Each structure stands twice: as C-alpha cells, then as structure tokens.
Amino acid sequence: MIDETPVLDNHLHLDPDHHRGIDAVRDFARLGGTHLLVVNKPSWHLGVEADTGEDFRPVFERTIEIVDEASAELDGRAWPVLGVHPGLISRLVDDRGLTPEQAGEIMQGGIDVAAEYVDRGEALALKSGRPHYEVEDAVWEAANEVMRHAFAHGADLDCAVQLHAEASEDMTEVTDWAETAGLPATKVVKHYAGGRLDGPVPSVMSEKDRLEVAAKRGEPFLMETDYIDDPDRPGAVLGPKTVPRRVSWLFENGYDEAVRTAHVETPALVYGIDTEATCSSTGQ
Ligand SMILES: [Zn+2]
Questions:
Q1: What is the pTM for the complete model shown?
Q2: Ligand 1 centre and the CA of 226: distance in Å?
Q3: Closest CA to 20 of 213, 273, 240
Q4: Is the pLDDT of residue 233 over 80?
Q5: How far, in Å, CA of 135 to CA of 140, rounded?
Q6: Ligand 1: distance of its center to the CA of 26 in Å?
Q7: How far does the centroid of ligand 1 lie from the alpha carbon of residue 96, in Å?
C-alpha cells in the first residue's frame, strides 16, 4: 500500500557536515518516503552568531544545497523551509546581553532574508514561532512581534509559515494575528504538534497515539519527525524512517483516508504542492 502513496515528512533537519545527512534521506526513501520539508538548523548549531539578518544567509544557502542533494535520492523531492528558530531570542538576550527589542530586530532581519529565497522560488515556506518555555514579558512580546513579521511576509508571498511554539491545543489567537496580516489560518502550521489543535494546521509528531487522535479527528494534518541529525542528541527526536513506518501502520489500521489527508490533501492546502504529480513511483 505504501508504494501507492506519496509519503511526506513535514519537518526535519539534515546536517551532512556534522552527522548523517544524505544517509538519513536514503533510509527514509528505502522505507517508502518520497517528499521532505527540510528546515534549516538553528543558526547557533552551525556556529553562526547572528548580529544582523544577513548573517543567516550562509545557513540558508547551505540548506538549499542539502535539499538539492536530498531531492536526488527521492522518488519525489525535497523543499527548503527557511527562518529563524525562536529559541535564538533567549541566546541573544541572556547570553549576549541584548535587549529584547534588539534581539527581535536581528530575528526579523533573518526572516526578511528568508523571505527573499521564498520570493525567488528557492524556498517553499518560512519558519518562525515563539519560545516554548517561560520567558519574561518583554521577551514574549518581542517574540510575538517576530512571528507577526513572518505572517506579514507569508501574506505578501502567499506562502506558509511553520511555527515552533509552546505545547497547546488552542492557538486561535495566533491564527487571528495571521489572518489580520492577510495570511489564512490554513497556511499556518504548528510543528511538533499533538493530534488535536485549533487554529494552525498541526504537523503531528509521528507517535502512534498522536497520529491516532489526528486520524480520528478527520481535519487537515501533516506528519513529521523533527529529526535533528545531531550526533550529540541521538535519542532527542524520532528517526528518519519513522514517517514511512507510521504510514504503513496507519494503512494496517484502516486509516487510509488519514494517509491521503496528511500526504496529499493537506500539503496541497497548506503549501500548494502536488505530492502526486511530483512523484515518479506512485503510478501518477
Ligand atoms: Zn526542528
């Protein structure tokens, strides 16, 4: 059955310079995976200490190169998702002594540069969000401002924004901000989500219990691993084989409709991508 469907991991990282890189893509493809959304690693993981938005450019360039290499291994293809990890605000404020406003400015500059790549058709979507842990009010405000800045670009470019944010089942306040900026809620994706979420489209971590909730709910959802490709954190996240394995498991349990939702219909709704037409192995 898995041979007859596209299989998309909506959020993972690849780091061929430090860890498995394209080997992880081969594992994914061997089990039936066809499409990947590759998110740039947090800038500081790559030794980049950002002082301006321009400092993100080499991180984005490297991600685009890696995506080209990944696409060569897939029956479908990979796309880059570029942006600024929300945890950066704490590094800039706590470790480097910047004000929340200064930190927010650097991060908005990074989003501006990411948006250039989307505008040129070199990236599919933007990545933003806010800390998933407690922070002081001024930091929270600055982080929300960065996120709203990403929504404004998303509206401008008609592209989706992936969010990294606190665990929640109701983020309608956030999609209200997006809609005020002109970006529909269907183009706001919450990464690392549970199976149930009001507001953004959940990109569900591919654990069986979360997927079962999403499948039974019948609303648009995506599947992801957040594979981080980091030798220092081998067990931190799900491995690259997980999405294809869970797709097989969903078929075995009769959730055929949910597989179509997560791998064909929701990718079309959120990103405007056609995972069937861009796949050579599914008989399309
Ligand atoms: Zn991630």
A1: 0.96
A2: 5
A3: 240
A4: no
A5: 6
A6: 19
A7: 23
108-126 tens-digit pLDDT:
999 999 999 999 999 999 9
Q: How many angstroms separate the alpha carbon of residue 155 from the centre of ligand 1?
A: 23
> How far does residue 227's CA lie from ligand 1's centre (Å)?
7
pLDDT tens across 196-232, in order?
A: 999 999 999 999 999 999 999 999 999 999 999 887 7
- In total, the chain counts a number of residues equal to 284
Check residue 284 and give its pLDDT: 43
Q: What is the CA radius of gyration of the chain?
A: 18
24: phi then psi, degrees, rounded to nearest 5: -65, -35
Which residues are within 5 Å of ligand 1 (an ion), measured at CB? 226
Structural contact between residues 203 and 226, judged by C-beta atoms closer than 8 angstroms: no
- Output phi, psi for 224, to 5 deg: -150, 170
| Token pair listed for 284 | 């399309």
Question: What is the Cα–Cα distance from 174 to 169, expressed in whole angstroms?
Answer: 12
pLDDT (0 to 100) of residue 237? 78
Would you state the structure tokens that stand for residue 203, as one six-digit string? Answer: 């990109």
Nearest CA among 264, 184, 160 for reference residue 221:
264
Mean pLDDT of 82-91: 97
Cα-to-centroid distance, 128 and ligand 1 (Å): 11
* DSSP string across 183-218: --GGGEEEEEE-S--BSSEEEEE--HHHHHHHHHH-
Q: Which positions ≥6 away from 15 have C-beta within 8 Å?
A: 21, 41, 45, 229, 230
Q: How far apart are the CA of 10 and the centre of ligand 1, in A?
A: 10
Rounded to the nearest angstrom, the distance between the alpha carbon of 27 and the centre of ligand 1 is 19
Nearest to 208 by CA among 163, 238, 188, 228: 238
Ligand 1 centre and the CA of 248: distance in Å?
Answer: 23
Ligand 1 midpoint to CA 284 (Å): 31
